[in-house]
Fold this protein.
Amino acid sequence: MANLTFKDFKSDQEVRWCPGCGDHAVLAALQRALPRVSQALNYDLERYVVVSGIGCSSRLPYYMNTYGFHSIHGRATAISTGVKVANPNLTVWQACGDGDALAIGGNHFIHAIRRNIDINIILFNNQIYGLTKGQYSPTSKLGAITKTSPYGTVEQPFTPGSLVLGAKGTFFARSLDVELKLNEEIMTQAALHDGTSVMEMLTNCVIFNDGTHKAISDPAVRADRTIVLRHGEKMIFGKNRDKGLVLDGMGLRAVTIGENGITEDDILVHDAHSEAVGIHMMLADMKGPDLPVALGVIRDVKAMTYDDGVRDQVKDVTVKSKIHCMDELLHSGSTWTVE
């Protein structure tokens, strides 16, 4: 196998996203992560395929030097499913936006997760329809003023993490576009996961929704308003690494280490591999004036995949079948001769 590098995954196409768009950083993270994936899994370049739907993020296949498929609005997950089931040896990466995947594509999205198909979904979430010029999306904040909600939206937005976990998702991670190293780490772990991996990337649209994630992405407040979760590590955050999460009844509470008798021993340890979904759901939903937004891999558990199930079923049926060729099929069952 060739020793693949960042340059091997870059195509010769000019990247045509607006200067400052968060999609640039996500693309760079993917191109940096895949050489690590190739080394870990012994994959050649020919095993990679990138599928997308419609939207700014869906231009991504053009910028990857891999097999690619720019599909139609909301159908990227259906195409990814077909690619993986038809050729399980391929490693399938899907780029889609919050509008593309969660509105018209919502049904395909949740059923791919339910089936646990071994695909890697990068969900670009800028909380707006960017390519079609600024309509509100399923993740736009309540009250957001957009081209299609000039007086403010009256809809509660989806929390993608809750949607994934509610559909029995086996892998969910979240990050910010500016967290390049964390994004490489997340993408590598997603590739190693056998099943549907969903990576929500909180991206900034500088034209139609600039600063939508500023409350947590601003370097001045990021350390205090986000927490990076890693399996087996204490849930500690803050600029001074003096804050942490504890379980308080049926919910999570942020505390300060050293106050009110709280010590580091009281802080929860993140268990991404726990079969129980309760704390994972709390982490995915976590937000508020005192609680940070969870970044990193929130859930990573094992379960049977759809593509493995199809493969095993075909093998079993093939062994037991009494029909082994087209001629036998045409002469099976009720047949007659036309004189």
Summary: The chain has a mean pLDDT of 96. The chain has eleven helices and eleven strands. The CA atoms of residues 109 and 231 lie 26 Å apart.
